[in-house]
Amino acid sequence: MNKWVLNNFRPLLGICLLLAALVVLRRELEQYHYRDIVRSLRALPGPNMLLALGLTLLNYLVLTVYDTLALRYIRHPLSYPRIALASFVGYAFSNNMGMAMIAGSTVRFRLYSAWGLTTQQIAQVVAFYSLTLWLGLAGIGGLAFLVEPMRLPDWFPFSLASTRPLGVLLLLLLTGYLLLSAFRHRPLHIRGWEFPVPPLRLSAAQILVSCLDWALAGGVLYALLSAGAGLSYPAFLSAFLLGQVAGLVSQIPGGLGVFETVLVLLLPSGGLPASAVLGALLAFRGIYYLLPLCMAALLLAIYEFVQRRERYRWIGRAFGQWVPALAPRVLTLTTFAAGTVLLFSGATPALPGRLAWLRDLLPLPVVEISHLLGSVFGAALLLLSRGLQLRLDAAYLLASILLAAGMLASLLKGLDYEEAILLGVMLAALLPCRGAFYRKASLLREPFSLAWGLAIFMVLVGSVSLGLFSHKHVEYSNDLWWRFAFASDAPRFLRAMVGAAALLLFFAVARLLRPARPKAGAPTPAETGQIRAIVAAAPDTSANLALLGDKLFLMSENRNAFIMYGVEGRSWVAMGDPVGDEQESAELLWRFRERCDLHGGWPVFYEVGVERLFLYLDLGLTLVKIGEQGRVPLESFTLEGSARKPMRHVRNRFEKLGCTFEVVPSENVPCLLPELRQVSDAWLASKNTQEKRFSLGFFGVEYLKQYPAAIVRLAGKIQAFANLWCGARKQELSPDLMRYLPASPPDIMEYLFIQLILWGKEQGYSWFNLGMAPLSGLDAGSRSALAPLWNRLGAFLYSHGNHFYNFQGLRRYKEKFDPRWEPRYLAVPGGLLLPRILTNIASLISGGMRGAMSR
């Protein structure tokens, strides 16, 4: 139980703070009516609204300088237009999701990795602009707290009379950072990551830009509040910054509720009534948060539209590297926001003037049903936003329908055209992005994390609280449930909330009653036959690793694809990409990720190719290059020419020795197994090693019986052999288990390879797979001080690790066949888990840590 609480501390903290905020708001607003807040909102002067819009635009322009400075810090320049476009969409998204999303979300990884930044560089960028944010808070907060200190209320957690001591502390911290930048020139090392200390000029730029950012953000709200009372800007800024810090600490998306509560508590001391503060805060939420989010969603929709127009192709190139990564996440957020808007709208009274106008046009049942359905649609959109995050195609279709239906319900229940326009913008952003939602799965079967469940619960609780506040003048009685009239807003609110709660309860019960998923594990005899059929139809020869007998399997629902994997420690290591039907691969990957999450494991995909990298990124995994695979195009391979003279020499030498080469069909292999075992045992003894598993074949009788074998004989005795994997439709040929007698003539394996390649070409195969060259392809620049830690370690091992493995020699040996090198990757969770995962993989391949430590 304690472990469960620790793992879910953030969402539990968020729900506690939200409930506390609602209690405080209810107490502070007890003397006010809902219409007082609406009146304050509608009374905001037009010039003040325009000023707030202008300051918001300027603030988002300043935010682009965060990225510019961060990229200068890591010495990776990018053009400003690209930075500005990415910054706007990224910050519009992260501002609505809170600080946790700014500092660690996969959005930033996807954004910058598309532009060539490595994992280490992205970590440095994230650390830089997160630090910049807090530096500006310390700078402008320290000045505001000193210039015009605010008297702190009794509920403040520290025994301070005013904010002046806080101001001194913040400025001291800022001074310490500047001194560090001035006098320390060596990088900081934090938990295995290296962070160069910015020079003094860059540090000063950080502080100035961030101070300007905070000042502009506060200026937006101050412009909306200044019409209500003569509150000085420094005094206001102190309250604004305290509210922002409280919102960031709460981990609630955008600090919703917590930020408003702090401002309502602090600002009345400046002469502003709580209703005026809350009205201005609602306008601030719309202008500074929701409007940029809608604009970002529209940018995504425009991209999807114009990339199909040839004359606008340059726009597609400008957006193309980062929009597909952001679109599902932004649309998830906008759909969740749409559901929240509909629920909040259902909890508040309609404008009397518009209801009076509807009375002459529509019968009462239409208004009543529209009000109820609007809230039900809102609750459904909250659920469907989770489906959009999981890329479900059914969620896309239903969300599109419900957004359109919500627009109609908004108009029919109270002529709320502003709400209908907002939903229409969200629908326009969603419609062109059909291709981003490719999974054919049921939402009932997908996992809902505690954070998602609490987010939906927060919205429902917030809606009920808003409704109770809006109708607190109405005395409750059982008759309210059955009262139907155009002026009966409170009964409509009660019925709408019950309808929304009933839908959420029905969904929860349906999930609880759904059939339990079968556990993936060792295949049944029927599944073994299906796996063999899938392997036989696979053009990629690595699919044959499924027949080693050492793996667990996760099959697709239609039994046309599978993932083979092993479990070592907390690492669930899938060997390669999914095998089988391409259309079922994406769903399989998501199911594997969910199964790992269910059992507290880490999803790991070992030796995956470039074709499906976008799917692993969609899963929120980080990609690490681990080497390259060499494939020889057989159609163009020949022994003719001066470059092939060494190969011709090897071939002629072995033929003069009397060596013969043959490929033995699989049905004749069993009678050769005793002699093959002698060769294998002698090879293992000479290498002082033991059999490896998982990622390559081992000497097993049942395994070797399934494949043809390439044999080299001398005087009738087998000197070397290799079992052969043959891809479907003769796309690829690959040797797996390769062994030779230690006393055989030198270069016998090269002779075997030459003959085997020529045999494959004669048989009509397209490619000959030489297998992996571990750690090759990690560029020389990876050895610089700014390179990722993994790249630097890989480059070092590649150059100096011959005692453990002849990395360079293996690459040079395979290079003589002129292969085409294709990168291979490891897809793993982000953070600092890589060393433990690599240890688990080594143990899995070697049959335990003892085998992993042997040469």
Cα gyration radius (Å): 33 Å
Portion in beta strands: 5-15%
Q: What general outline do the C-alpha atoms trace?
A: elongated
- Structural class per helix/strand content? alpha+beta
What share of the residues lie within helices? 55-70%
Roughly what is the average pLDDT, rounded to an integer? 78
Question: What is the number of helical segments per DSSP (H or I, 4+ residues)?
Answer: 32
* End-to-end distance: 43 Å
The number of distinct β-strands equals: 14
- Main sheet characteristics: 12 strands, mixed
Low-confidence stretches: 1-7, 99-106, 310-321, 780-790, 792-805, 849-855
Walk me through this protein's architecture:
With 855 residues, the chain is α+β, with helices and mostly antiparallel strands. The strands form two sheets. Strands 3, 4, 5, 6, 7, 8, 9, 10, 11, 12, 13 and 14 form a twelve-stranded mixed sheet that branches. Helix 8 packs across helix 10 (200-225). The two termini are 43 Å apart. The relative contact order is 0.07. Mean pLDDT is 78; it is low at 1-7, 99-106, 310-321, 780-790, 792-805 and 849-855.
Summarize the structure.
The chain is of the alpha+beta class and 855 residues long. 59% of the residues lie in helices and 11% in strands.
Write the layout of secondary structure elements.
Layout: H1 2-7, H2 9-28, H3 34-42, H4 46-73, H5 80-97, H6 99-104, H7 106-113, H8 119-147, H9 164-183, E1 188-190, E2 193-195, H10 200-225, H11 233-250, H12 258-266, H13 274-306, H14 313-320, H15 323-347, H16 352-359, H17 364-389, H18 393-414, H19 417-430, H20 450-470, H21 489-513, H22 525-536, E3 552-555, E4 561-568, E5 571-575, E6 579-580, H23 582-598, E7 602-608, H24 613-618, E8 622-633, H25 645-657, E9 659-664, H26 673-687, H27 701-704, E10 709-714, E11 717-726, E12 732-740, H28 748-763, E13 767-774, H29 789-800, H30 807-815, E14 820-828, H31 834-846, H32 849-853
Parallel strand pairs: 5-7, 12-13
Antiparallel strand pairs: 1-2, 3-4, 4-5, 4-6, 7-14, 8-13, 8-14, 9-10, 10-11, 11-12
Helix pairs in contact: 2-12, 2-20, 3-13, 4-5, 4-8, 4-10, 4-13, 5-13, 5-15, 8-9, 8-10, 8-11, 10-11, 10-13, 11-12, 12-13, 13-14, 13-15, 13-19, 15-17, 15-18, 15-19, 15-20, 17-18, 17-21, 18-19, 20-21, 25-28
